[in-house]
Design brief:
The chain is an alpha+beta fold. It folds into 2 domains: 3-86 and 133-155; 88-126, no CATH class. Helices cover 54% and strands 18% of the residues. The chain starts with a helix and ends with a strand.
Amino acid sequence: MTSNENLTLYVKLAGLRLNVLANRFGCDTEFLRDLHDRLVGGLDAAISRIRSIMAMERNLLAGDDEFAEFQLEGEMEILRRFTIDLLDDLEIDFGTHEYRIKGGNWIIALAADCTGGEIDYPELVDVPESELGSLALLIAEITAETGIPVRASRIV
């Protein structure tokens, strides 16, 4: 990404954040208010990441930091992989047959006995749009405008 693309993304994220805050006032349930708050937190994290990237670009141009190029590459990679999870987050390590929920402890999914082995991972199921209400439109808009995936999924 160029510095102009980063600035454009920053402006989009800030505008979408304001939309989410405005939309929160129309929420009639605590569940939806909580999801809006989590989405604002995710957008704040993305905005902070962009600010860090723009500061590193300035350091790189000024030649103040010899490691700025490497740091910038790392930050850009983190931003490319950035995802906003509104409910549950599931990580699966297929190599060790383990999983963890919301960054907690790793849990073994492999069970074995004299009859053989069985691997049982939990699944993520998207929350239906009817349950998300107007937030579903904002989620789609954020993903379309910024390329940052927003997931509202529950673990089953």
